[in-house]
Amino acid sequence: MIEVKNIRKSFGDKVVINDVSTVMKAGQCNLIIGSSGSGKTVLMKCMVGLFEPDSGEILYSGHSFTEMGPEERTEIRKEIGMLFQGSALFDSQTVEQNVMFPLDMFTKWTISKKMERVNEVLARVNLVEANKKYPAELSGGMKKRVALARAIVLNPKYLFCDEPNSGLDPQTSLVIDKLIQEITKEYNITTVVNTHDMNSVMEIGNYILYMYQGNKEWEGSNKEIIFSKNERLNQFIFASEFLQDAKEMRMLEETGKIPHHRNFGNTQQP
Amino acid sequence: MTIFTDIGQYLLMIKGMFSKPENGKMYWKEFIHQCAEIGIGSLGIVAIISVFIGAVSTIQTAYQLVSPLIPPSTIAQIVRDTVILEFAPTLVCIVLAGVAGSRIASELGNMRVSEQIDALEIMGINTKAYLIMPKIIGSLLMIPLLVVISMALGIWGGRLAGTAAKILSASEYDKGLLGDFRPYNVIFALIKSYFFAFIISSIAAFYGYYVKGGALEIGRASTKAVVVSCILILFADYVLSALLL
């Protein structure tokens, strides 16, 4: 479990995160959503220690990460896996070497044991015949899967995914979402995903935090989000006609009524 | 103010490199990799430049020594001392600032921009120690070696040009090389090369490690690293010469 308490972060005069508090639960996909510039990436970077918050506290299983010294942070970081927006694979290393890197650095396992684990995680992300390929030879979806394999190779307790579907087609996005969801449940990981992909929200969002201009605007599950009365959230999620229709369908199925507020965020429609 | 901020950040970077390695074997592997990149990777250009520097020095020295009272072996002495004292350490290190320095800056800059450094940080690795330290130690080992090779090739290039142009015979050249030889000159050149090696690697690492932005900034950082390294090499050359000669 990760607790975020009253986090505030500014760059110069611009306040990017303003007093945000939340709890990310274990075994769940916790999503941070919001439009570009809403502060979700900065919040995630504060959570993993890439940015230092101006005030507030981050707690990993009750231990204050913000108050830890470098050595304690290093220990916590060994329990963190992160999937970056651009995959962040090491260009000069093959897929196998990329995934093996954390094992080489932090374990004293034999080569055969390390290879076994590498093949196991690569099989887990459905990537079995790319071991000797370099990142430049892989597609965007394959790179994300390799990065995911590298993130989970040390059995992390916490998994962070920064826009895992950016630059991917809807079908591949679905595959990545499913993988993240399955891995979260399988290893009981606290997963935090930054996204503005509404398909991901509906597919895997056990808990959703909606950010608006650096503030926490709404929180709830993917079952609740569709019925939310928050206007800003509705403008964000129902920006497409397709999702508007999906919402109506679901409301019709569950309540037998069609919502009266038909034109959220889509001013061109009657 | 920016210059003081940069100096402070540079010193913090150097301080940040000193920590217990997470895994000694991985650091060793990275160190060997950097030695190969810096040493073997720059050997070709260093060899070519050194031979031609020696050759040109011989021809130009002979052109200026027109008095029949000066024996031809003096040309070899002048070439030897010029190559050992200045050309091999300083000129080669300026070339290495371009070859090895820009490679270090662009490699680290690319890693920063593509979030590879962040990925290492998240894993719990001290990126300053893992990425910068092996580059600096690799440079401190390989650049003086390249300078020694450059000295030998420069002197040999002078001999080759001197005999080919019939300026002096091989035996006269060899006699000149041995005449009034001061071993301290070699030590002085090696001391200079250690200072220059540190400047080349640490300045390039600093500009690469702290790149902000995209591909354009990587190019700018790389150019800035070379320019600043060259200026500092020339300044250090003057200070060391004034202090040690």
Account of the protein in words:
The complex is a heterodimer of chains A (270) and B (245). In chain A, 40% of the residues lie in helices and 23% in strands. Chain A is an alpha/beta fold. In chain A, helix 4 packs across helix 5. The radius of gyration of chain A is 20 Å and the shape is globular. The C terminus of chain A is likely disordered. With 245 residues, chain B is mainly α. Chain B has one domain. Chain B has eight helices and no strands. The interface between A and B is medium-sized, with 26 and 17 residues.
SSE diagram, text form:
The complex is a heterodimer of chains A (270) and B (245).
Chain A: E1 2-11, E2 14-24, E3 29-33, H1 40-48, E4 55-60, E5 63-64, H2 70-77, E6 80-83, H3 95-106, H4 111-124, H5 140-152, E7 158-162, H6 170-187, E8 190-195, H7 198-204, E9 207-212, E10 215-220, H8 222-225, H9 231-237, H10 241-255
Parallel strand pairs in A: 3-8, 3-9, 6-7, 7-8
Antiparallel strand pairs in A: 1-2, 1-4, 4-5, 9-10
Helix pairs in contact in A: 3-4, 3-5, 4-5, 5-6, 6-7
Chain B: H1 2-16, H2 24-64, H3 73-113, H4 116-123, H5 127-164, H6 170-178, H7 183-209, H8 215-244
